[in-house]
Amino acid sequence: xxxxxxxxxxxxxxxxxxxxxxxxxxxxxxxxxxxxxxxxxxxxxxxxxxxxxxxxxxxxxxxxxxxxxxxxxxxxxxxxxxxxxxxxxxxxxxxxxxxxxxxxxxxxxxxxxxxxxxxxxxxxxxxxxxxxxxxxxxxxxxxxxxxxxxxxxxxxxxxxxxxxxxxxxxxxxxxxxxxxxxxxxxxxxxxxxxxxxxxxxxxxxxxxxxxxxxxxxxxxxxxxxxxxxxxxxxxxxxxxxxxxxxxxxxxxxxxxxxxxxxxxxx
Length: 266
Known about the structure:
Layout: E1 10-14, E2 17-20, H1 36-47, E3 56-65, E4 74-83, E5 87-96, E6 103-111, H2 146-149, E7 150-156, E8 165-171, H3 183-191, H4 194-197, E9 206-210, E10 212-217, E11 226-234, E12 239-247, E13 252-264
Antiparallel strand pairs: 1-2, 2-4, 3-6, 3-10, 4-5, 5-6, 7-8, 8-11, 9-13, 10-13, 11-12, 12-13
Helix pairs in contact: 1-3
């Protein structure tokens, strides 16, 4: 199957080995993946790891993005750092064929017991996807990529406007071919886009690359849509921070942050 014919972000070649498709390609470099799909792949590996307990739920993921994720086959490796009765800590890494590890995550899982405590939550405080509008993506030179695999609707702002933005995102294709999309995958495929939707600087003149991603979740999403209510701050020394409230149509479900390296192009 050619890259352009694939109907998912990845094809599974073995339990721990995945082939990226054209839908993983980011908007800036034809040889590199958008960080959203690899982040979701690492989250999926933690949920599907051998010996994982069904009563443990992912509560926080902290990613280190060491280098761009290439458009090459990827191997995922997990190891348990701590296995307690109520809390687990798992490390998961992503390595391309013929290369060094490119992304690593430390994942905190907590025991979930539905109905054991009173629920305290915030309702949705932004317009829903039905009230949001599709808007143009950054100019991209290739036909297939992350920009075509995700449906994006803006309730405020846009990719081509500077400043805070509220963007609803939905996966058009599964994360892994032939496999059901997991709720966690929906969040992680979208969460890395916070610095893009809320860019404060002209992307023609500046780069603002996130070197990490932290996602904290008090619950998993319901439904297909995930919202990033995002904003970016930049210091004149070249360090920035993008933060996003993560929502679904029910309400707030978590938050993500990205540390940014900011510099003039060229």
